[in-house]
Amino acid sequence: MDLLPNPAIEASKQAEVQEICIVGAGPGGLAALQIIMETPQYKAGLWKPTAFEEREKAGGIWVPAPPVDNPPKTPLYDSLTTNLPHPVMCFQSYSFPPSTPLFPPASTVEKYLSDFASHFDMNQHIRLNTPVTAVDWDTASSKWKVKVRGDEVHEFDLLIVANGHYRLPRYPTTPGLGAWLAAGKATHSAWYRRPEHHGKTVLVVGGGPSGNDISSDMREVAKVVIQSVSRGTSEDIDGGKFKKRGRLAELLDINEGRVLFEDGTVETGIDHCILATGYQHHLPFLPSSLLKLAVPPPVPPLPEHLYNSSYHLFPLARHLFPLSKSFPPSRLAFLCVLRAIAPLPVMEAQVRAALAAFAHPEILDPTQEAVDILTHYEDLRARFGDNDLQIAAAWHVFEPQQQFDYRDELHALAGGRYAGPEWKVPQWVRDMYMERDVLRSEWRDLERRGEAEDWVRGVGEGGIEEWIELMHKLLKRADERHRNDEDQTAKL
């Protein structure tokens, strides 16, 4: 179904204009604006969006800032590059320029987002330096009351929350951590920007992209770097200059710098600990009457109100629409609470589905959506038992291919032209996502050899097929290098 066919617009000139509030002008807020602006409703003057952005520039976490706030405005560190090839991670509506490095640095992504906003003339709808401080649902008027800086209050019909979930640091419950933090011997990676001297031996806790990057960075300035990874095994590399260990069990004596890992291994002489342990869902502008900050009770039945466990928002139909007794599910959408995905194209699909539900609330069947949530809960319960915290932590985490099925399902829900086969996720996207680590390893090898720029020069001028061909060439290179290594080993 189309959001609102042109004949319907002509017949609805008397309809009230609907104001749409977007919280945040990072990637999610920009995706929302771009897709709203291409709808018949917007072009007919029936939808009027406003995006409120607390910072001085659109772009979200990709806009750098010194780590002076608590928490910092962004966790962006100097060495950050994307961990996905940009043809896989970019907005479908806007590609990175030709010759862009396949795994671009953060500064390139920041410019890409700025150019994206300018290209689609979004800035007219963005209010910078305007944080949203409070949002509440007014039952009498069936509108959202949105307060921004300076106690300025506006009314909106529809609400899209796109403030991201990489702001409030998550600290583990590791025994002894409090004392190390108080002594200044432990910090969260949200404050990390570049490798600085913190002593001879540094412990990095976390095995995600930031944990891996920071562990690599710190080898430039520390004599020994120890990386603690859940379910990891002990391994000493480079003569013990880089040590991999399992989950951190306890931070012991501060003066001795002694720590204990789950496998019983003890390390001493640690001068500093960097916690690359992730971030919490944080929506401080929503009152407890609408969003309770707690782990939700076991289901069934579904709770009548929304919960924020800090790991997940619950219950959300399709990880997007809140099922709450407080307000209709078709009046609010939470963008990209998911993890372990290529976020930008997922955001686009979510916005299309959200706008379809805004225009046609009947496409959401609350009963079926509740059944789907309960089914997902039972699937996770089969894995984690009755541990509701583990269920919460896994709730918004997708298996690699699941995100692409999800995008297809959202486009089917949006209907109309989005239901056509041309909107299905292409097979090359699925394939290259699965090869992302191989591609990144090869790309880094090209960068070390000074060959990367030659590989991408002019690529993309003839369209996306050139990027697909380049990635296939990189995979072929990786295969050939692997075979050569095997041949050399066989000769020994």
From TrEMBL:
InterPro entries in alphabetical order: FAD/NAD-bd_sf (IPR036188), Flavin_mOase (IPR000960), Flavin_mOase-like (IPR020946), FMO-like (IPR050346)
Keywords of the record: FAD, Flavoprotein, NADP, Oxidoreductase
Segments traversing the membrane: none
Metal-binding among keywords: no
One Gene Ontology MF term: N,N-dimethylaniline monooxygenase activity
Signal peptide: none
Family the UniProt entry places it in: Belongs to the FMO family.
Record PANTHER family: DIMETHYLANILINE MONOOXYGENASE
Protein name: FAD/NAD(P)-binding domain-containing protein
